[in-house]
Amino acid sequence: MQNLACSNTILQTITEDEKRGRVMSFYSVAFQGIAPFGSLAAGAVANWIGAPRTLIIGGAALIAGAGLFASQLQKLRRLIRPIYVRIGILPEVASGIETASLLQEPPLD
Question: What would the DSSP string read from start to end of the chain?
């Protein structure tokens, strides 16, 4: 649930307003529309090799996917951070930019 909520939040905040509906429809298909097919495949594999082995394979795939995601997390942060600064989600950076722009104005005498 946490993964779905975080993914949804990131996608909605980094997507341009006019494209948000399209992006969220792809997101819904990816996470909700494909699940029945995965369940069907898992049931077929469990029927073929047994439920315990199927769960072990699924768990190993989950751990491998988590490792792959963790290895790409810094890259994802570098890509998303400038977008968050631009739209003001990171207030400490946005306020620093605002303060710097105020310092560039000539002083009032």
Answer: -HHHHHHHHHHHHHS-GGGHHHHHHHHHIIIIISHHHHHHHHHHHHHHH-HHHHHHHHHHHHHHHHHHHHHHHHHHHHHHHHHHHHHTSSHHHHHHHHHHHHHTSPPP-
Place of tokens 């097919």: 37
Are the CB atoms for 66 and 2 separated by under 8 Å? no
∠95-104-107 over CA atoms, to 5°? 110
Q: Are 16 and 24 in contact (CB under 8 A)?
A: no
The answer to whether 52 touches 44, Cβ cutoff 8 Å, is no
Model confidence pLDDT, tens digit, residues 58-97 = 999 999 999 998 999 899 888 888 888 888 777 665 555 5
Whether residue 84 contacts residue 13, with contact meaning beta carbons closer than 8 Å, is answered with yes
**Whole-model pTM above 0.90?**
no
